[in-house]
Amino acid sequence: MTSIAMQRRKATAGRVWRQFRSSRQGMIGLSVLAVFVIVALAAPLLADIRELNPVFARAQGNPQWASPDQFGPLGTDYIRRSVWAQFVWGSRVSLFVGLAATVLTIFIGSVVGIVSGFIGGKTDGALMRLTEWFLVIPFLPLAIVLASILGRSVWNIIFVIGITSWPSTARLVRAQVLTVKQRLFVDRARSLGAGGGHIVGHHILPNVSGLILANATLAVPISILTETSLSFLGLGDPGAASWGKTLEEAFVNGAMVRNAWWYFLPAGLGILAVVLAFTLIGRTLEEIANPRLSGR
Amino acid sequence: MRRTVVLMAVMLLTASLVPMASAQEEGVILRIGLTQDWETLNPTSGFAVSEYEIWNIHYATLTNKAADDFSVTPGLAESWVVSDDGLTVTYTLREGLAWSDGEPLTAEDIAWNINTGRDQGWDNMYSTVQNLDAVAIDDRTVEVTSAVPDPKLPTLDVYLVPRHIWEPIATDYDTATQYDASDFVGSGPFVVTEFNKGQSVVMEANPEFYGWEGDPPYDGIVFQLFENPDAMVAALQQGQLDAIHGFPAGSAGALSADPDIAVVAGQQGGFDEIAVNGGAVEGQPHPALLDLEVRRAIGFAMDREAVIEDLWFGLASPLETMSPSADPKWLPEIPEENRFTYDPERANQILDDAGYLDTDGDGVREMPDGTNPIVLRHAVNTDGDLAGPIGDLFAGWMEDIGIGVTLESYDQDALFGVIVDGTYDTFWWGWVPFVDPDPMLSYFTEAELGNYNDANWFDPQFDALYLEQKEELDPDRRVEIVHEMLTILHDAAVYFPFYLGPDLQAYRTDTFEGWVRQPAGVGPVMFSNSSPSYVLLTPVDGAGAGAGGVNWVLIGGVAAAVVVVGLLIAVRRRGTAEERE
Question: Domain containing A231 — which CATH number?
Fold first, then answer.
């Protein structure tokens, strides 16, 4: 039985991959994302981390506010640091925070959604009231307050994003669980004597996992944007070079007025590209999981 | 997410409309841009530079300060006599003084302010009036007696509030300091008519002010708050403002290039420093910081010249000791060999000699017994302009001498709490001193530990000298004592001032003329100790009320914001429609 299930799942994965490959937008998203993942992983090869240290930059004799043709490949900032080094090393923080916060978001959201949808009754009521409570709290102010209370570190940012953005996932998963629960095979399993844990693990979870995956890919860009917003508002980790921090420093130090486009454009385009890539992938997965969406 | 973006676009829209609204004031208005908000206009309790500026204009003082050198000049008092023992000063008021609401301003008002400020302990007056007692002899004569020799007299520059309004309100410290000062009755050249917190303060000429010869030369002043300093610079360049205070150093070049704009880098003793936790009270710093040699090594490892060059574009000037006054005469000369001049090799040598070695080869030194790596908690003030880059620089400097740094961010209020608790190793902040050095010096005494003493350090010798200067009536001797105190503080290596930081100001030369710098030659033209410019300014002939022309950039910006908001709303609608199906 297990091997049959395994085979079936393998076949499903193969089918999903074939469908994904045939989707143009999905493949564009995937290749853009691949480029950024490679940049993030290969950061030590692409740029010297010491270039992020303004004392080192000054000792190297880097100019201030140099444009890309004066100092390759992307110029320097207001304290002589290489913008290229900030871009490369910043991609690590932005991607890491985006992914880690999404994992946390999806984990909390799925657990709440499945428990709530499957058990129902008073538990459902209590959990959904909690979810609604989180939904109506204005998201950004709550994140700002949490970030200022907890202090500014990468892990706190991940925690803040996770704790504030799970409710919509929880509601989506709960709705899906409610429909799956009504299906015949769940009744069948139950009449064969299966316990709650078995039903959730073997019947419910496989049927909502597609939705969770699609939802996760769509949650990543929101997490990345939130990290950027928080860093831009000065609530980021002061020791970590992220794209949001680059944008904040460029803004605060008047890069716009100076027309120092090389300072803010790479980070801005980087965020745009990664967010777009994840959205394209997420949409494609969503269409595969729910064919009714295609063609819209 | 979307809602916040819509909100931001709306905020952008309103923010860009604000300067237009204030430009619709009638008459000839002086318009000033600034970036620091007002918490309160109550002169007994506020402390922000922006608030002092309003009080400087709104309230006349008993004696005034000369624009050139802060020397004492007549104010509400036209003359005074000092008794032989120097303890009593008898002031004679000008004739016919009145508050802006027409009520007479008499010696009773003055005496009530001094005595009530002392008894109720008003924050902003107390250090001046704590030992004084005032008696109104008649309507125009007030006699002030000090219980101890007081080198500050006959200067009496506290803000005087109208007794006929304040007496029923200010019954104790809490009622006095928490009053919102919404009566707007003053005695200065201009008085407040509108206070919009977070936006603007509107003032109009006070015909009762003693200093006007004939009609006031212009009708009012509007202080306009800007969230974004770049927008403020642009508003000055476009002629929507007549002057700005506190623009970013990076904009100095562009502003100087405009023939109709004058740029002022005004020195009035303000400075920024890296303070090291001296460990005098609990909340102990890293144990290495208790060793003078380690603190000295930190001093030699910091490249203060680089900060002046890169972050101030050369507009700040070097500073060796804490600056206690707007007057540079109080600063001692530190011998060349004792100065903390950037020399990382020497810093490394000092640490090696003192036995702080990197025994496990991880690039960070340990204590002499080989334990407890030296990693410092550097507090970054997120409300401070340069705190971010200084944090990065400090980490870099320390890395070069084998000391680790973790950056911890706090906003201004939180940082104040951290300093009081002593749960930090180093931080970056700044001060703007008064004219008399006494308050700044008091902050480094034992009595201020856990309060204003942000070095968390004290020295009995320093404290003894502090008490000595406080009652020293010989001005030259007092300067000597202060020099000695500052040298002690310097040699203790707990407080590293980086530079005398200028107030960066700019004003249009085609709208108003007559700006004066206080002190002469080096000081700022506004936001100074007594801000003398406002009485002396006159509109430039034919300039009218400034640029009334259509501002296409602004209109373009508003139009763009409207389009963005529209798009977002449309996107949002579609979003909900999709979700609904």
Answer: 1.10.3720.10
Q: How many residues does chain A have?
A: 296
pLDDT at residue A2 in the model:
62
Which chain B residues are Cβ-neighbours of A148 within 8 angstroms?
Answer: 411, 414
Asked whether residue A190 is assigned to any structural domain, the reply reads yes
> Cβ of B5 under 8 Å from any chain A Cβ?
no
Q: Which residue of B has its CA nearest to A55?
A: B396
A157 lies in which domain range? 15-293
Would you call B396 and A55 a contact, using CB atoms and an 8 Å cutoff? yes
Does residue B287 have a cis peptide bond before it, meaning omega lies within 30 degrees of 0?
A: no
Low-confidence spans in chain A with pLDDT less than 50: 296
pTM of the model: 0.77
Q: What is the ipTM of this complex?
A: 0.79
Cβ distance of A257 and B306 shorter than 8 Å: no
Chain-chain contact of B310 with A258 (C-beta, under 8 angstroms)? no
- B190: closest CA of chain A, how far (Å): 34
The 3-state DSSP composition of chain B as helix, strand, coil percent (nearest 5) reads 35, 20, 45
Lookup result for tokens 């970054």: B380
Domain presence at residue A7: no
pLDDT at residue number A293: 61
| Percentage, residues of chain B above pLDDT 90 | 55
Handedness of CA A188, A194, A199, A201 (dihedral sign): negative
Per-residue pLDDT reduced to its tens digit, A72-98: 788 898 889 999 999 999 999 889 988
Of residues A54, A152, A235, nearest to B392 (C-beta): A54
Beta pairing, strands B317-318 & B495-500: antiparallel
- Indicate the number of domains in chain A: 1
Task: Walk me through the domains of chain B, giving residue ranges and CATH numbers.
Answer: 17-43+47-54+188-267+503-558 (3.40.190.10), 61-178 (3.90.76.10), 271-501 (3.10.105.10)
Q: Which of A140, A252, A254 sits opposite B251 (nearest CB)?
A: A254
